[in-house]
Design brief:
The protein is α+β, with helices and mostly antiparallel strands and 359 residues long. It contains 6 helices and 19 strands. It has 3 domains: 92 residues, no CATH class; 143 residues, no CATH class; 98 residues, Beta Barrel (OB fold (Dihydrolipoamide Acetyltransferase, E2P)). Strands 1, 2, 3, 4, 5, 6, 7 and 8 form an 8-stranded antiparallel sheet that branches. The protein has a 5-stranded mixed sheet with strand order 9-10-13-12-11. Helix 3 packs across helix 5.
């Protein structure tokens, strides 16, 4: 198909039934870098009880951990693209291989127009109405992602997954959610108001405790629970920050290269957090001390994170601990160092957290 103008969280469907999520905002000229989210039961199955997506008279399975990456690299390598800056193949879809592009904002508007709504769509509309009325952010600044975007959500089990477009809009929504969480009769509460949010979940991170994780997640405000009296169900409601079109600047430059420089753990101060809510999350930093790694870590100017866990994790003027892949970016516009947090062999050793947090 012809090139579609896509951004983070937009969906791409291939002819085989692989559903990709567009990943971030920086892409090669004729492709989109992606993350694999779901696959049709015709080509993939999973024994994970969380995986089946059975709504809409179709069966898809959600990928967990590296399942999607393994499937693509093993059986569908046409859905990889060369990332010239990294000089390696990554998951991605060439424009010519896009069977269908799905946009969260368009899907939401379509759902708002239908007459008879299932119980989850109905709850989503009521959550949206409450947040728009209290924040002043219009419905056109929202979308739906996850299984609802693709039409295979389960009304009894799926979550409410909303995108929020724009920096100012996200600030307003977070402030509104904070207020709603504080009202006992609002029907809204913070998902991470207690450590019970993590009960039954396997914890793998080595340098971030469960208590630290919950503390950071709670103050992000974007993870809520909606106590729906109408359906009798308490549903997770997530508000995912996405950049407005006017805020997007691509960093993909085939004339630049990224050079691995080993592993680093540093203490630093956050000097810029304006891109913290988005994926990738970018934090301007001033290194204070190298705790592990070579002295090049003192030259780091930013943290560049693709990890959901560390989105909107720390704030300007806070002192933090960051551990991950030390890289040098060599480009025509100037060279600099960064710590990148991403999928890698030492995934669970990576960390970004407030230093000396008393929890």
């Amino acid at each position: 198909m012809a090139r579609a103008n896509l951004r983070d969280r937009d969906g791409i469907v291939t002819k085989e039934g692989i559903v990709f999520r567009v990943f971030g905002y920086s892409h090669p000229k004729k492709a989109y870098i992606c993350d694999a989210e779901y696959a049709s039961a015709n080509i993939f199955s999973s024994t994970d009880p969380r995986a089946p997506r059975t709504g809409g008279k179709q069966l898809f399975y959600k990928f967990y951990n590296d399942e999607g990456m393994k499937l693509v690299f093993d059986k569908y390598p046409q859905y990889t693209v060369l990332h010239k800056m990294l000089n390696q193949k990554v998951l991605g879809v060439n424009h010519e291989d896009i069977l269908e592009a799905r946009k969260p904002e368009k899907r939401l508007q379509a759902l708002l127009k239908i007459g008879v709504k299932d119980k989850l769509v109905d709850a989503t509309v009521r959550v949206l109405n409450k947040v728009t009325q209290n924040s002043g952010v219009p419905a056109k600044s929202f979308g739906v992602f996850g299984s609802m975007l693709h039409g295979f959500h389960n009304p009894d089990f799926s979550d409410i997954d909303l995108t929020v477009y724009g920096r100012k809009q996200n600030i307003a929504v977070r402030e509104t959610l904070e207020a709603l969480y504080g009202e006992s009769d609002s029907g809204f509460r913070n998902e991470f108001e207690s450590k019970q949010a993590m009960e039954g979940k396997r914890w793998r991170f080595r340098n971030l405790s469960v208590k630290e994780f919950v503390w950071h997640q709670k103050r992000k405000m974007i993870y809520g629970l909606f106590d729906d009296k109408k359906s009798g169900r308490i549903t997770k409601a997530e508000f995912e920050p996405v950049k407005a079109w006017s805020e997007i600047v691509s960093e993909y430059d085939p004339k630049s290269c990224i050079i691995p420089k080993g592993w680093a753990r540093i203490k630093a101060r956050i000097v810029d957090d304006c891109d913290a809510p988005f994926i990738p999350s970018i934090y301007g930093i001033k290194p204070l001390e190298v705790l592990e790694g070579n002295r090049d870590a003192l030259e780091v100017t930013r943290v560049f994170s693709y990890m959901e866990e560390f989105r909107q994790q720390v704030q300007k003027d806070e002192t933090v601990i960051v551990e991950g892949n030390l890289e040098e970016v060599v480009s025509p516009g100037g060279d600099f160092h960064q710590v990148t947090l991403t999928y890698c062999p030492r995934y669970y050793e990576q960390v970004l957290k407030v230093s000396e947090l008393d929890v």
